[in-house]
Predict the structure.
Amino acid sequence: QVQLVESGGGLVQTGGSLRISCEASGHTGDMYSMAWFRQVPGKEREFVAAVSGAGKIYFTDSLKGRFTISRETGEATVFLHMSSLGPEDTAVYYCATHCASLGTEPDCHYWGRGTQVTVSS
């Protein structure tokens, strides 16, 4: 019953910024984790960032400082703010929820279909 819909992806030039969002629906409770992952063709899915049900923030070390995750209170929406973008950031960005092991290796149960982010050189 849980559904996730990502939006806000698009084309941005190197050095630019972009904000993508994820709307969740169908949850039975209001305390749950939400996370962002990204994937490029031929490569493994990569964890980006997450926020736990208690509000704790997690980032992959290589992206810390450029990306920011936030949750919109009152609505089941989470944002990923990206800055200083480069071609290496080009990927399909996926939203996920009901995640375990956020402090080690995140494992999420529900996934969205993804939104494409393309950074031009």
User: Anything to note?
Assistant: The radius of gyration is 13 Å. The CA atoms of residues 10 and 117 lie 5 Å apart.
